[in-house]
Write a structure and sequence with these properties.
This protein is mainly alpha-helical and 224 residues long. The chain is 34% helix and 4% strand. It has 8 helices and 3 strands. The chain has helices at residues 4-9, 18-22, 102-116, 122-131, 142-156, 163-169, 179-191, 208-213; strands at residues 26-28, 42-45, 73-74. It has a 3-stranded mixed sheet with strand order 1-2-3, with no helix packed on it. Helix 3 packs antiparallel against helix 4 and helix 3 (102-116) runs antiparallel to helix 5 (142-156). The longest helix has 15 residues, at 102-116. The chain is globular and about 65 Å long.
């Protein structure tokens, strides 16, 4: 239960309908041989599956018994949003890449209303939560609702390449709150990575061609 992916998945309410649409929970594998029925064994996600930072970390063990469900488990973070199961190659998906979703608009409305003190800050976030089968929020302070909106974005847009820029937008190195720093520190602590949180984690470098092509553009200080 100490793996980073496990900790992300377990941040969801068990009744959250988004779990099934966000994570792949099982799949037929070719990594081990066929079972006694001559079929591909079904591998299921488990919080108890081994996981590491290697390329194959979290996959079912290649020497797992194809007839033993206790060994047919994986702990990898596979996104159900882009991977299409049931076809010859799950990577040949025809699922669309999402650039903007209505949920983004709704959560943006809640954030704007909460920060400005005008409008109903619960309107957007509760519509998102209603769709996910969760209870509505009410009676929170401005700070707690801000935290709730950030958390809802993490749950709603997991694996859509939106979480890092969203957390970065609301975080400052050494600041309060520091959503991005909390997540990075959790990763460091989970895997025992030999590094410390630093200001460089909060900003991306300006592309080199932009810096070289315009004398008025200077690289971000953290990358100089």
């Amino acid at each position: 239960m100490d793996k980073f992916y496990t900790s992300i998945r377990e941040k969801y309410d068990p009744n959250d309908k988004r779990i099934a649409g966000t994570f792949i929970s099982e799949y037929p594998t070719t990594r081990v041989g066929p079972n006694s029925a001559g079929e591909r064994p079904i591998v299921k996600w488990s919080a108890d599956a081994s996981y590491n930072l290697s390329r194959f970390g979290g996959m079912v063990s290649a020497d797992a018994d194809p007839n033993n469900p206790d060994e047919l488990i994986f702990g990898n973070g596979w996104s159900a949003k882009y991977t299409e199961m049931g076809i010859s190659n799950a990577n040949l998906t025809e699922k669309n890449i999402v650039y903007l979703r209505y949920a983004d608009v709704l959560l943006g409305h809640s954030e704007a209303a909460n920060e400005s003190g005008t409008g109903d800050p619960y309107l957007g976030i509760n519509l998102v939560r209603e769709r996910a089968g969760l209870d509505p929020l009410s009676g929170l302070s401005k700070e707690l609702l801000r935290d709730a909106i950030v958390n809802e974005r993490v749950m709603e847009f997991a694996m859509e390449c939106e979480v890092y820029p969203e957390l970065k937008r609301k975080s400052t190195f050494g600041g309060t709150p520091d959503y991005l720093g909390d997540y990075i520190q959790e990763f460091i602590d989970t895997y025992g990575v030999d590094r410390t949180l630093k200001a460089k984690d909060y900003v991306l470098p300006i592309p080199l061609n932009e810096v070289l092509g315009n004398p008025n553009v200077t690289q971000n200080p953290q990358y100089q």
